[in-house]
Amino acid sequence: MTQDEATPAGGESTGAATPPPSGTADVTAAVHDVARRAKVAARTLATANRMTKDAALGAIADALVGSADRIVAANAGDLERGRANGMSDGLLDRLALTPERIGKIADALRDVAGLPDPVGEVVRGQTLPNGLRLRQIRVPMGVVGMIYEARPNVTVDAAGLALKSGNAVILRGGSAAASSNEVIVAVMRDALTARGLPADLVQSIDAYGRAGGVALMRARGLVDVLIPRGGADLIQTVVRESLVPVIETGVGNVHVYVDATADVDMAVAIVMNAKTQRVGVCNAAETLLVHQDAAAAFLPVALAALSDAGVVLHGDPSAMSFAPAGADMVPATDEDWATEYLALELGVRVVPSLDEAIEHIRTWSSGHTEAIVTRDIAAADRFVAEVDSAAVMVNASTRFTDGGELGLGAEVGISTQKLHARGPMGLSELTTTKWVVTGDGLIRP
Amino acid sequence: MTQDEATPAGGESTGAATPPPSGTADVTAAVHDVARRAKVAARTLATANRMTKDAALGAIADALVGSADRIVAANAGDLERGRANGMSDGLLDRLALTPERIGKIADALRDVAGLPDPVGEVVRGQTLPNGLRLRQIRVPMGVVGMIYEARPNVTVDAAGLALKSGNAVILRGGSAAASSNEVIVAVMRDALTARGLPADLVQSIDAYGRAGGVALMRARGLVDVLIPRGGADLIQTVVRESLVPVIETGVGNVHVYVDATADVDMAVAIVMNAKTQRVGVCNAAETLLVHQDAAAAFLPVALAALSDAGVVLHGDPSAMSFAPAGADMVPATDEDWATEYLALELGVRVVPSLDEAIEHIRTWSSGHTEAIVTRDIAAADRFVAEVDSAAVMVNASTRFTDGGELGLGAEVGISTQKLHARGPMGLSELTTTKWVVTGDGLIRP
Fold this sequence. Notes:
The first copy, chain A, is of the alpha/beta class. Chain A has 2 domains: 24-241, Aldehyde Dehydrogenase, Chain A, domain 1 (3-Layer(aba) Sandwich); 254-400, Aldehyde Dehydrogenase, Chain A, domain 2, CATH 3.40.309.10. The first copy, chain A, contains 15 helices and 16 strands. In chain A, a hairpin with a 5-residue loop joins strand 1 and strand 2 (133-140). In chain A, helix 3 packs antiparallel against helix 7 (178-194) and helix 10 (264-276) crosses helix 11 (292-308). The longest helix of chain A is centred in the first third of the chain and has 23 residues, at 24-46. Residues 1-17 of chain A have low confidence and may be disordered. Strand 16 of chain A pairs parallel with strand 13 (391-396) of chain B, so a sheet runs across the interface.
């Protein structure tokens, strides 16, 4: 998931926008037909220049703002269904669209239009001794599938990033937002048509329900990459079921390690920021590890500050011994070390050494982000070299693991896998490469 | 598969080197234990410098040469079993090891030692306005799994490339080479131990038979990437069954398109090179497309040359009309357009336009390599932009799609997928990246 996306709990309901075809075979055929149309449409965009793509994004942004009333009306239906199904206030808020929110979604699209075009970038190039001229250039993937949960802004974000990087997109959103998504997709498709581009660059398969999602995961050869965005259950299902290559965007069981030599004020500021600046995001800290030599100076201050901020603390026996009076601190279990709270809760453990801190991280981390706070070069170097995570922070908050914060512009998600993309995924990560080899009749001797 | 590797047909037999554990659960536990040991061993190598790794490769090369007699003796057992099982002469030749061949395998390892180390390369880096210092650096994947067929040299090649790029490797070779591989792996492990490195950097699971291969494919989270090398059946099985991310190395249904403006001599030289310089490799041409305006000048010369070289031609009606007297030319069917012959056979079709050539390639190509022969800039540009393959050649032979030929040094295989690696995979493609973010106490406002 992205750093601005918490794990929604449930929220699926049965009503799809259009009645789905009756049998699984029919759904598969229909979804694979969608994918084939996407592939054909993608060819147009693959050779389109940046100006064409940026103009299309601008047109979509204008169309969304111009259709705000229609979108809000459809959204009201989703909200009503959500309330009837007992959806929580938090999820209802994430689902809700207002003209202001639609304006922000449109602004985000215009921001994407302002980013450099990754397509055409020469990644490597040289002339070989035999005169063969080589260029490895970035080209679009082709067809990108997105499977995501309730928030309807993802519908626009995903389409915008896919189009900017020259791809067609197939969207499978949560059924809780089906009415909103149906209108949003229709508006985007109309805007593409009005700019002379194929509407099938953006297609939704929401009408095919769960079977449609399964068919999408089976569409190997028709869909080039599938990106799940949402809770751990959704992501694991896609990873397990998909024959199409998947980029796993993942769970962030994030650690902050306060080393023996850490500056106490800096360490407190970083821990507070990592835990409390925004809760429920994947780059927020979930466990605090403290070197025993720093514990006496650091923990009383840190635990008091965390407690004052309303953080429930789960400590090992040593950490418990530093609990300030009145702090909400309970004994930690192994389950705490494994948990991504996504809430105002934090595991706290005192470790005898840097080695033990690294070992704890190896055992429990999800490989998203870990931070060390230290003054010691050797400790920082070892932490950076030995912690096997997508992002490793030295004297900085874990909250910086974010496409925007790391200067990538927009973000498709944060990959916790090692293949293709690791960490925040920007536009480049939605491309592949092609070798272009030019000779003057060269043959292999 | 790599360009030097043909599709072997069958060649599996049942004899594993050690009796496998009795039940599937036992095999799974044993193989996952192998993977856990690999992961621990990989940590040592992840932080080893280039000199350490190159010295280890040199030591393995020396040990293989020093153990040539033992390896050849074990190989004799495999050859005997192969003959008893009716293995073809071609496969027996691919399986056979001699002291000379072992010397060449060792030399290839020394060549890998001479290549630059991909680990530590700074892929991107900048200082952000807030002072945050970013580096995206190459780091090893961790644990690489290889599933491959009969040729025992792959055992050494794969281990060498994995070690050089800082990874541990788990090998699952074909049972036809089980005795050879068992000795080779033992020699490599001893050489690692002698250099003070963990033997578990190189492990074989051949003793666990087919169930071991399945267990390896299920080891998500323990194995970072799985690379199948061999025939289409093997590769498709791994793609279908694996929960571990796979890099598909693939089938090459390769096309040469001779454009209206092609230089006839150049076109004949390129087609001859692409089809006949080496047969049975994935970058060899399988279909020749000819613009109708070039047919009269080009085809009689080309078909005569191909026919003289012993190539069986499968032509469409128009191509058939240019068949020289005595040529072995038969009518082509759709099956011909779909076939990777890997033999002295070639499909030949006359097309009315560049568009039709591109459309034929879209319909039938496996996305490996296609070439255009032309004098026309616009035709070359369109072909490069619209043909969606890992490598696109302009006035050069398709046989150049090869890690060595494209200057990557060694090659793990040729990827026909779009995720992570596309085209020849060198050492860099066995690495991932890590963001290293350094601040002086920076927090997110």
